[in-house]
Amino acid sequence: xxxxxxxxxxxxxxxxxxxxxxxxxxxxxxxxxxxxxxxxxxxxxxxxxxxxxxxxxxxxxxxxxxxxxxxxxxxxxxxxxxxxxxxxxxxxxxxxxxxxxxxxxxxxxxxxxxxxxxxxxxxxxxxxxxxxxxxxxxxxxxxxxxxxxxxxxxxxxxxxxxxxxxxxxxxxxxxxxxxxxxxxxxxxxxxxxxxxxxxxxxxxxxxxxxxxxxxxxxxxxxxxxxxxxxxxxxxxxxxxxxxxxxxxxxxxxxxxxxxxxxxxxxxxxxxxxxxxxxxxxxxxxxxxxxxxxxxxxxxxxxxxxxxxxxxxxxxxxxxxxxxxxxxxxxxxxxxxxxxxxxxxxxxxxxxxxxxxxxxxxxxxxxxxxxxxxxxxxxxxxxxxxxxxxxxxxxxxxxxxxxxxxxxxxxxxxxxxxxxxxxxxxxxxxxxxxxxxxxxxxxxxxxxxxxxxxxxxxxxxxxxxxxxxxxxxxxxxxxxxxxxxxxxxxxxxxxxxxxxxxxxxxxxxxxxxxxxxxxxxxxxxxxxxxxxxxxxxxxxxxxxxxxxxxxxxxxxxxxxxxxxxxxxxxxxxxxxxxxxxxxxxxxxxxxxxxxxxxxxxxxxxxxxxxxxxxxxxxxx
Length: 619
What we know:
The protein is α/β, with parallel strands linked by helices. The chain has 19 helices and 13 strands. It has helices at residues 2-7, 14-36, 48-80, 83-111, 117-124, 128-131, 136-165, 172-196, 200-204, 218-224, 282-286, 306-315, 322-328, 333-340, 378-395, 441-467, 502-505, 527-537, 604-613, and strands at 262-268, 293-300, 344-349, 400-406, 474-480, 485-486, 494-495, 510-512, 519-526, 563-566, 571-574, 579-582, 588-591. It starts with a helix and ends in a 6-residue tail after the last helix.
C-alpha cells in the first residue's frame, strides 16, 4: 500500500491520469511489438516494397489493437479518478494485452491460426477436459510467464506515472499514436493498390497478422479505369515464392483413367435449394429424372458467399485457405490434373472473375482466361456465356473442362420483357425498402423469374451437348455457390453472407454422369465432396482424398458431425442441432438452426477437428 501511495504522490488530476494512461499504453505497445516480432518469422519478404508494406502493416495493426485498450482504459481512469482502482485498471489492461499477444504468437507458431473463441472453447468447452490435457510442468511455465508480464507491466506503469508527474516526454504520445494511425492507413492504401495489380508478395502477408483485413478495391479501380481486368497479369510476380508455405497436396497423385470424360460445371449464383422445382426451373428439374441423373437433396455449399462457395467447389477445402492460395496462385489439384491430362478449358462467368480474385487462385493456371463478359445487364451476360459455350463445344475435339457461372438470379435481373413472370412481381428493386415488416413475396418472385430465365440458358447448354453428340461423354454438375434469404428467420436477414442457416447454405446439386444409374440421395453432402468424387470415380486417382481435400465421396452415406461454411471474413460450423458462428474479433456464438438462442455449446472434440482442418494444408 505504501508503494502505491508513493507512486501517485502527489495525487494525480484527471488530466494526469489520462496522460499516464496514454504513456503507459505507449510503453506496453512497444512491449507488444517485441512479443509479436515472432509473426514476421513466417512472412517472406522479397523486395523493398514488401519491406515497406510489412513495416506499415505491422506497426499499424499491432499498434491499433493495443490502442483500442488504451482508449478504453484512458476513458475509465479519467472518469473514475480513484487511485487504487485506476492503477488496477491500467495494470490489468497492459498485462492482459501482453499475455494475449504472447499466447497468440505461441498458438500461431504451432498451428498457423490466431487466438479466438474456438481455442477457448477447446479448453473450457463441452468435453474440453477429455481433449486437452495440460501437464503440471506446462502449468508451471504458464504461471511463470503470467507473473513475468504482471511484473513488467507494473514497472512500466510506475515509469509512466513518474514521467507524467515530471512532465517528461510530453509530445511523444501524440507523435507515437499518430504514427500508428498513419501506418495503418498507409498499409491499407498500399494493399488496395498492389492487390488490384496482382502483387502476391503483399497479399501473402495478410493472414499472418491477427485480425488483419486490409482494404481491397479491385472492382472500384476497374470501374475507374485504373486497371484493365483483361490485361492485368494473371500470373503475378512472387507467386512461386509463397507456395512454400503450403502443404498441398500432401501426397503425389497420378491420373490412370483410360477414358477421360468431359466435365462441365454449371453454377447459378445465389440459387437456394428450395427453389429447385418444376415450377421455377422446370427444364433443369426434369433432368433429375434422366437415366444417368444423380440428385442430392441435402447438399450444402462450402460458403454463404461466392468467395467460399466457388473456392470450396473446385479445391474441396475450406475458404479459410483463400489468402494463402491466392498469394501463392496455386491452382486446385483438380484443374492441374485435367490440364496435365490434356484437357481443353472453357471458363465463362457472367460476373467478373477478378472480384473475388478467382483469376489468382481457382483459375490461375487457365491460359487466356476471360476475366469479364461483355454486357450491361446480368441477363445479357448470361446469354453471352451461353453463346460462348455453344461455340466452344462445336469446335473442341479434346476432352474439356468448362465452367459456366450465371448471374441474373444474384442480380434479380431477368429481361424486362421476360415471361412468364411470377406474380405479384416487384418491377423495381429498392433495397432501402427491405425491413422486418416488408412482404418478401414480390421480391422473391422477381428472383424466381430470373431463375426461370437461367433455366432456359441451361436448356440451350444441354441441347448443344446433345447436338454435338458429346452429352454421352460429359459429366455435368449443376449447382450454386450459395443460397439466398428473404427474411426467412424473421430477423431482417436478406440476401446472403449474413448467417449460416439453410436459407443461405443449402443449394441444389444434380449430376448427369454417363454410366451411373439414376438415384436420389438423402444424406448430407457438401461442395467439398464433388471434386474428390470425380477425381476418384472418373479420373482413376487412387491417392487418398484427404491428401488434397476436406471432403469424402458423394456416395458415402455416413453422417457428418459438422460442416464448415465460409463467408467474407468469418466462418460457421453447421451441426445437426446448432450453428456455431465465428466472428473476425475471435468471438463465436452458438444458436439453434433458426438463429434462436440456445444453451448448447461447442463440443471440444468438434472444435479440435475444425482447427485441424483449417490448418493441416499449411507447413
